[in-house]
Amino acid sequence: MNTLPLSGLKVLDLSRLLPGPYATLVLADLGATVDRVEDPAGGDPLRQMPPLSDSGESALFYGLNRNKRSLTLDLKSPAGRDAFLRLVRGYDVLVESFRPGVMERLGLGWDALHALHPRLVYCAISGYGQTGPDRLQAGHDLNYVARAGVLGYGGQTEGAPAFPGVQMGDIGGGSLFALVGVLAALHERERTGQGRFVDVSMTDGALAFLHMHLAARLFLGDQAPPLRRGTDILNGGFAGYGLYRTSDGRYLSVGALEPKFFAGVCEVLGRPELLADGYSPGEAGARVKAELTRLFSEHPLAYWMERFSGQDVCVEPVLEGDEVLADAQLRARGLFARSVDTPRGRTVTHLLTPLRLGDTPLRPPPSLGQHSRDILQEAGLSLEEIEKLGIQVMPGIE
């Protein structure tokens, strides 16, 4: 039998929306048991967020919550809080994404839970972290990458910052650093027997995307100017590393960073002399970039892909929309997996998480509170105690 590496690990997920649920999706895909604790009054707000299926189910929630179970508890009520304290003893990891101080006000913060369950790894994901003057401030992904300087580093020189198409702060700064922190704490627990509090700031995590550039700037000090968008070698300042529009309105990504690759690009273009000034600053380099812009704009994307076919020079098309689903490399990597969702009576294509260390399970997401009774019984609550909690299971998926 193929056993996934996190089989036997139990995770209690109190998080909502994207950062925490994506982190726990990775854990679930790697074999962990992930049980979501949701508010009885609607659950994770992502459940109501469009786009919605014909049955009114959020496609965003579906995509983030396979291989998980759901229970509902009112953590503001004494009975719900007491049930949670009994429940948490059976878990290895807790993940939450409330603003700092919320769990403490409920009597369920790190100090209380560590005293009750010293082996628990407690991961708190928040916008600005548990400390600092802005720790209680509201924010979303766009705010975090803005504060981290990542947003300001992309875009045209003297132009507006480039609006990010994806949630770098949520997933890159939040989910992935939460996973690193949780797995590091679990490794430490093997040695010490003690859990740890993992404080994940999505703004701190977003800053990591700027690490190479900002760390170099700090090392050089007054010898180097401040970072600016559109001027450095990796953010559009050099002809061999950039985006170029084709005659049909499509784009090519040219990542010919090293001279051997840029020389190859110039050869395909029939302009080998462009290599001489390709890495020059100022007007000389700008002239090379302008010439590449002109040349690529003369023909459609398909023409250029044929010209560059078989040339190992770091030129790729910018895929748009559903084109990514047909990409031969991504399909060969098995990133899109089909399964039958029996409760919903349909076949679904899943986007798998990047690490596959065995056969990824593809159990459909739970309805709100679907597994409440099972999970609470596993925690030792009697049927009578569960009934007193007023647990309700949403109809539709059993």
TrEMBL record:
Superkingdom as given in the UniProt entry: Bacteria
Any Pfam family: CoA_transf_3
Lineage summary: Bacteria, Pseudomonadati, Myxococcota, Myxococcia, Myxococcales
Molecular function GO terms recorded: catalytic activity
InterPro entries referenced in this protein's UniProt entry, alphabetically: CoA-transferase_III (IPR050509), CoA-Trfase_fam_III (IPR003673), CoA-Trfase_III_dom3_sf (IPR044855), CoA-Trfase_III_dom_1_sf (IPR023606)
Transmembrane segments: none
Protein name as annotated: Alpha-methylacyl-CoA racemase
